[in-house]
Amino acid sequence: MSDKAKIITPAVWTLVLTAMLVIGCGKKAPPVAPRRAPLIQVTDLHGGLNNGTVRLTWHHSPENAHAVGYIVLRAQSALIRPECPGCPLVFQKVETITMRRSQRKKKHALEFYQDVVEGFRYTYSVRPYQSSGAQGPDSNRVVITSAEDSPETTDKDTPP
Question: How far apart are CA 71 and CA 42, in angstroms?
Fold first, then answer.
């Protein structure tokens, strides 16, 4: 084989392979998971305190049929510390509520109960989640104050 043929052959192969990559069939983009409709925010979270037990209630909407459950989040601060409007709250997951498949397409009420300790201000929020682990937006917030001299039921909604 001549020297000229040795030079042309790698160049030809490079050109052919590049052309195959560019011309090849299919969409030219990285793979993307199928899109699902975004989860809808819970806007009707309510809460109360009775004998040291917090009760939260909200409604599951049929528009959130692809939500498999809800995550209950709580932030707490001591009552001896003054309230700080605008300060960030640190929420922690306290419960995961999973719904049966038959419940997902119907509007129905959900409830959550938790015993709390006196002397704290508790802020609750709920968030829908999907089977993939994707989570929706936080709900409205409910603030519960647990003190000896506080009223038994407190339901103060605050924006997320």
Answer: 11
pLDDT by 10s per residue, the chain, length 160: 555 555 567 777 777 777 776 666 566 677 776 677 789 999 999 999 999 999 999 999 888 888 999 999 999 999 998 888 888 999 999 999 998 877 777 888 999 999 999 999 999 999 999 998 899 999 999 999 987 644 444 445 554 5
Rounded-to-integer distance, Cα 60 and Cα 102, Å: 12
User: Smallest Cα–Cα separation from 150: which of 57, 36, 72, 54?
Assistant: 54
- Give the span between the Cα atoms of 144 and 118, in whole angstroms: 11
Report the C-alpha gap between 113 and 94 in whole angstroms: 11
Task: Tell me if residue 134 falls in helix, strand or coil.
Answer: coil
Q: How many angstroms separate the CA atoms of 146 and 2, rounded?
A: 92
Single-letter residue type at 65? A
Nearest to 142, CA basis, from 71, 9, 43, 11: 43
Half-sphere exposure of 149 (CA within 13 A, CB side): 1
Rounded Cα distance between 8 and 28, Å, is 30
